[in-house]
Write a structure and sequence with these properties.
about 425 residues, alpha/beta, 2 domains, 7-stranded mixed sheet, 5-stranded mixed sheet
């Protein structure tokens, strides 16, 4: 089935008991065992089944299957937020220590996770000079446990060459973990280009309605954990907390997700509630349609901004002369996502005035909502980074990040126009002319 169909039917056809075609909400905590032996077998991970909703839940299970199918993956774990998905995905390969190599263009909280939080847990973050494969390869060594990147950087809008980065990772015997939140599987499926693990903030484009927070980790099932057993003893040696279970032996090509669920979901408890999973499923049913409108609106907005004399610069890979245009054609089918950045003449002060003058466009730090959303990253999402780190991530003091929604595009343009009129003082206008 194609993405448009999977987003509606993937992982669920109807309820076997009632024949209900909408996914049921199993608002339930615990599940009765048939016997003590059955309970023991479940807790030893010998047989599948539901035992406690901190570990798995039927509604969440439907969401996991749907997201896995959309990404072309083998298995999925849904968790409480995109950031929970990120931390679980990375710790699952690096909780014995080591290093993670990443490009500098990262979402602010992800940068903080890598640069500070994981470092306190014995995991070193190494940020390459750029998102080019050769710069990433230069930092990989025997301590490296994964390469991480965003398919489309937030907010930089850079597009990573997934095939090239996957090759340098695999040549070194480590997996490529990719955040596909901005692109979504509607525009790109990183697994098709060599990524091993895909992470999502389901809160954003996948849900789309801005009322539910969730995250997902999708495993391609293709990385050979046995071939890199020295780097990844957690998958190849007995786990004493499960009476000596070896994940690659018990779960085969689902070893990565099985360990993430059994070790991290079970013990750290970043659980996605059944009602939240249901709300995200409702959003996913329309993700293909919404992304189509997002992309079309963003294109109109980007070209309008570029032609406006009050605008100093626009970062949008849909421009033919943009440095990422060729990669946008290769990986996104020529459809750059609706996340773009720009700066006004007048710099930081003009950016703040513009931001404060918006009426229709919402001043929030979220992206991927049906609504158009605006953010000043230097003041918010990337506030904890140094000025040098901000610039490396694609954030300058005047950067405005715009997540273009699915409203009528003329209404979006009119609000941007009035906000720019309020932002540009007479001296700045003369300089722009």
């Amino acid at each position: 089935m194609r993405s448009e169909t999977l987003s509606i039917h993937g992982g669920y056809l109807c309820d076997p008991a009632t024949r209900a075609v909408a996914a049921p909400i199993y608002q339930n905590v615990a599940y009765e065992f048939e016997s003590a032996d059955q309970a023991a077998a479940m807790f030893d991970l010998e047989v599948p089944g539901y035992r406690y909703s901190r570990i798995s839940n039927p509604t969440v299970d439907i969401l996991e299957r749907r997201v896995a199918m959309l990404e072309g993956g083998k298995a999925c774990l849904a968790v409480a937020s995109g950031q929970a998905a990120m931390s679980t995905a990375l710790l699952n390969v690096a909780d014995h220590g080591g290093s993670i190599v990443a490009p500098p263009q990262l979402y602010g909280t992800t940068h903080t996770l890598l640069a500070h939080t994981l470092r306190r847990h014995g995991v070193e973050a190494r940020f390459a000079a750029s998102d080019r494969a050769q710069d990433i390869a230069a930092l990989i060594d025997d301590t490296t446990r994964a390469v991480f990147c965003e398919t489309v950087g937030n907010p930089a809008g850079n597009i990573c060459d997934i095939e090239a980065i996957a090759k340098v990772a695999h040549d070194a015997g480590v997996p490529l973990i990719v955040d596909n939140t901005v692109a979504t599987p509607i525009l790109m499926r990183p697994i098709d280009f060599g990524a091993d693990i895909v992470v999502h903030s389901l809160t954003k484009f996948m849900a789309g309605h801005g009322v539910a927070m969730g995250g997902a980790i999708v495993d391609s099932g293709r990385f050979d954990w046995r071939a890199s057993a020295r780097r990844f003893p957690m998958f190849n040696r007995p786990d004493e907390s499960y009476h000596g279970l070896v994940y690659v032996d018990r779960f085969g090509d689902e070893a990565y997700i099985a360990r993430a669920r059994s070790v991290y979901q079970r013990t750290t408890g970043a659980v996605l509630a059944p009602m939240t999973a249901f709300l995200i499923l409702q959003g996913i049913e329309t993700v293909a349609l919404r992304v189509e409108r997002h992309v079309a609106n963003a294109r109109r907005v980007a070209f309008a901004l570029r032609e406006d004399p009050r605008v100093a610069w626009v970062e949008y890979a849909g421009f033919e002369d943009h440095r990422y245009h060729a990669l946008a054609n290769k990986y996104l089918g020529g459809r750059p996502p609706s996340l773009l950045t720009f700066g006004l003449h007048g710099g930081h002060a003009a950016a703040k005035r513009f931001y404060d003058a918006l009426k229709l466009v919402k001043r929030v730090v979220n992206i991927g909502d049906t609504r158009s959303l605006c953010c000043h990253p230097a003041s918010t999402t990337h506030r904890q980074m140094t000025p040098q780190q901000q610039l490396a991530a694609g954030v300058s003091p005047e950067t405005i990040r715009l997540s273009v929604g699915i409203e009528h595009v003329e209404d979006i343009l009119e609000d941007l126009d009035q906000a720019m009129a309020s932002a540009i003082d007479p001296a700045s206008k003369l300089a722009a002319e």
